Amino acid sequence: MKRFLGCCFLTCLTLSGLAQNYVSQVWNPDNGDGTYTNPVINADYSDPDVCVGGSGEDYYLTASSFQCIPGLPVLHSKDLVNWEIINYAIKGGLEPRDAFTFPSHGNGVWAPSIRYHNGEYFIFWGDPDYGMMMVKTKDPAGEWSKPKCIIPGKGMIDTCPLWDDDGRCYMVNGWANSRARFASVLTVREMNADFTSPVGDPVIVFDGNGTENRTCEGPKFYKRDGWYWIMCPAGGVPTGFQLVMRSKNPYGPYESKVVLAQGKTDINGPHQGAWVHTKYGEDWFLHFQDKEAYGRVVHLQPVTWKDNWPVMGKMPSKGYCGEPVLTHQKPKTGDKVANVNPVESDEFNNTSMGLQWQWHANYDQKFGMPTPWGVFRLYCYKAGSSDNLSVPINKEAVDGRIWNIPNLLLQKTPADNFTATAKIRMTAKEEQQFGGIIMMGLDYSALVVKRVGKEFQLQRITCKNADKGKSEMVETLATLKPTAEDKVEYQPAIHEDIYFRLSVEYLGGKNADGTFAHKAQVKFAYSLDGKKFKEAGEPFMMRQGKWIGAKIGLVAAQPCGTENRGYLDADWFRVTK
After folding, report:
1. Structure pTM?
2. pLDDT value, residue 562
3. Distance separating alpha carbons of residues 10 and 158, to the nearest angstrom
4. β-bridge mates for residue 219, sequence order
5. Could you count the other beta carbons within 10 Å of the beta carbon of residue 20?
6. pLDDT at position 17, please?
7. Dihedral of the CA atoms 111, 116, 118, 124 (nearest 10)?
8. 185 with 234: CB under 8 angstroms?
9. Beta-carbon contacts of residue 130 (< 8 Å; ≥ 6 apart)
């Protein structure tokens, strides 16, 4: 373990600089020859939206973050291909606090839009339970304002603003059937100048009910050459298409065309994203592809205008519906753009949490903290107890399973095939305290060491259909002697130094209905010396979470009670081929 390093300050600065130029070992879309390969971000940035910054040379992307904190990731690019995580717009947690004390799976931040206007950056989103929300800043890499509810109410989702040429302002949004009990309609309403309250009632401008345009949602609002444009997905998330509609009036009526669909490609459901017009006169569209267990990954399509309709992807021989491209020439830029990808590996040599990590609920200090010793400390969460947090407990959320543990330290899966290895020390002060590595989703599996008596048991903890209340299955694989033991009498602990690994293999396949599947299996392994690894249990089929992809990371927990907390010290977490 790296502890009390005299050169820690210099090391932190060096690694901080490296993180800003991080190049992934497992997925890099830049081919190095002026072309790129989709997806440009092979990770779960669901419902992506992008704006052009004030310089015209910078692009900023945000995406749905649901209940995960920090929320609203902010990514930066100079060419729409090379992206890095630079910030989060929500750091202090989601409101109301007690609603997000425990993992509120699938709730929170839905389908945001990011815009630049008059020197400020805005992000709008719909919380399906509480209303339309907004944050803003003058520096996307700096501090964002606290979330403000601009229209309270249930069911309003997928919000996007438009500042019109005459100074009037409009908002378009979709509706969640789970809350409003209607869906597949888009509404537009007028807003005040600072977008803090409506000045008009909503008007239904599009209805996809009973047509191929069912599940129309995620609208984005633009104006071009006197035309109002709403771009939205329709036809269902895994199998749908991109719909574009235009009108001379913000309230319609709108005429529409399908401008991007899977066609003969393997890129299913290409839709919901951002139209980008660059300073070099090019048009591009970023959208997601639903890859099931991997979540919704981000693709980049060229846009060609035909008869004043934006054809996305490969131009068809006739009509207006393009197909996704797999490789293409990169967008034009002013200068050569450095290769960079969203950061994955972490040496934990910094005294701030790496930008790849998110908690599974609102953060509490007792979850864990960075240290100056080259480790990140994750304290054992007292599962089923109310003394973990400083906010009121949600009684319905507490049943002791990992599914309801909020201090899971997780990140997105970064590629179809990869290996994640962690070096940890588990410190147990009491019985049943455990920690290890996890693949988290609606089905999840963790490889942990748990204190039993004066020894540790190596265990696999697995749960299938966790969202349905199913119980965890525990398999004991080995008994391990502690690698160290405290000799002092005050809160004595035993320690286990161990390496944990999970490897993801893409299987592909077909679904029951014949559609293309994105199946993957996970193999777990452990090592006592970091060199020779031994398989730990049977392979596990990776499965997505609630509206998010499966996530990888660390877990530390213990039964509820008044016992002293144990903890997991993570020395490093490395993502490799």
Report:
1. 0.94
2. 80
3. 44
4. none
5. 14
6. 37
7. 10
8. no
9. 95, 96, 149, 152, 154
* Among 527, 572, 520, 526, residue whose Cα is nearest residue 550: 520
**Side chain identity at residue 86, one-letter code:** I
Q: How far apart, in Å, are the Cα atoms of 237 and each of 241, 261, 340, 546?
A: 8, 12, 29, 14
Residue 41 per-residue DSSP state? B
Strands 381-383 and 551-559: parallel
SS3 140: coil
Are the CB atoms for 174 and 186 separated by under 8 Å?
yes
In the DSSP assignment, the letter for residue 198 is B
Query: CA distances (Å), 218 to each of 63, 156, 205, 287, 335, in order?
Result: 12, 11, 14, 11, 33
Report yes or no: 24 and 344 within 8 Å, Cβ to Cβ: yes
pLDDT reported for residue 396:
41
The DSSP call for residue 336 is P
Pairing state between β 148-152 and 131-137: antiparallel
Give the list of residues 6+ apart from residue 105 with CB closer than 8 angstroms, or none.
66, 67, 467, 545, 546
Whether residue 96 is preceded by a cis peptide bond, meaning omega within 30 degrees of 0, is: yes
CA 409 to the chain's CA centroid: 13
For 419-433, b/e burial (b = at least 16 CB within 10 A) is bbbbbbbbbbbbebb
Task: Return the pLDDT at 462.
Answer: 98
Secondary structure (3-state) at 483: coil
565: Cα separation from own chain's centroid:
30
* CA distance linking residue 405 with residue 555, whole number of Å: 9
Separation between Cα atoms, residue 228 and residue 171, nearest integer Å: 12
Count Cβ atoms within 10 A of the Cβ of residue 336 and give its class: 0-12 exposed, 13-18 middle, 19 or more buried: exposed
Task: Name 196's Cβ contacts closer than 8 Å, sequence gap at least 6.
Answer: 134, 148, 150
State which H helix or E strand residue 455 sits in. strand 455-463
Residues 6+ apart with CB under 8 A from 394: 98, 99, 101, 102
Rounded to an integer, what distance in angstroms lies between the CA atom of residue 385 and that of residue 503? Answer: 33
| 412 close to 420: Cβ distance less than 8 angstroms | no
Q: Sort strands 110-117 and 83-90 into parallel, antiparallel or unpaired.
A: unpaired
Cis peptide before 198 (omega within 30 of 0): no
Q: Where are the beta strands (DSSP E) in 176-295?
A: 185-191, 203-207, 220-224, 227-234, 241-247, 255-260, 271-277, 283-290
What DSSP assignment string belongs to 161-176? EEE-TTS-EEEEEEE-
Residue 481 is encoded by which pair of tokens?
A: 């002697």
Q: Which residues of the chain register pLDDT less than 50?
A: 1, 3-18, 387-397
